[in-house]
């Protein structure tokens, strides 16, 4: 049965994620839960991370930047990155790592 206020119900595949959230003790308060749910929805709408964060901040302007960062961080704990995402991150951070190594040599 769906939520009478929204006419939506939890999908069976998402029940595991919710159970995992409870089991891992993330202790999401209502604002973090709202940020988490909106971020998940935006990411599942095929937005990249940057666009999802920008839109999340526009949709939820009352939440502080720090609160949004914590909500997104906790969301990412629930969804480990895929092999492709890991490869993309390695490429993205290669320049930063190279610059750090260069700085250490100076």
SSE run: HHHHH
**Low-pLDDT runs:** 1-6
What percent of residues adopt helix (DSSP H or I)? over 70%
Which class of secondary structure composition applies to the elements?
Answer: mainly alpha
Q: Helix count?
A: 5
> What's the total number of strands?
0
Radius of gyration, in Å, reads 17 Å
SS strand fraction: under 5%
Q: Oligomeric state of the chains?
A: single chain
Mean pLDDT: 78
Largest sheet: none
Measured between the Cα atoms of the first and last residue, the distance is: 64 Å
Gross morphology is elongated
General description of the model:
This protein is mainly α. Helix content is 71%, strand content 0%. The chain has 5 helices and no strands. Helix 2 (30-44) crosses helix 3 and helix 2 (30-44) crosses helix 4. The protein is elongated and about 45 Å long. It starts with 11 loop residues before the first helix and ends with a helix.
Looking at this protein, list some descriptive labels:
single chain; 106 residues; mainly alpha; 5 helices; 71% helix; elongated; disordered N terminus
Write the layout of secondary structure elements.
Elements lengths: L11 H12 L6 H15 L4 H11 L5 H14 L4 H23 L1
Summarize the structure.
Helix content is 71%, strand content 0%. It is an all-alpha fold and 106 residues long.
């Amino acid at each position: 049965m769906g939520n009478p206020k929204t006419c939506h119900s939890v999908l069976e595949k998402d029940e595991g994620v919710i159970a995992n959230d409870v089991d891992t003790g993330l202790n999401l308060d209502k604002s973090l839960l709202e940020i988490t749910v909106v971020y998940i929805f935006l990411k599942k709408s095929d937005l990249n991370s940057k666009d999802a964060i920008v839109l999340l901040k526009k949709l939820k302007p009352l939440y502080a930047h720090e609160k949004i960062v914590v909500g997104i961080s906790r969301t990412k704990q629930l969804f480990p990155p895929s092999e492709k995402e890991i490869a993309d991150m390695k490429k993205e951070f290669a320049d930063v790592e190279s610059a750090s190594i260069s700085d250490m040599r100076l």
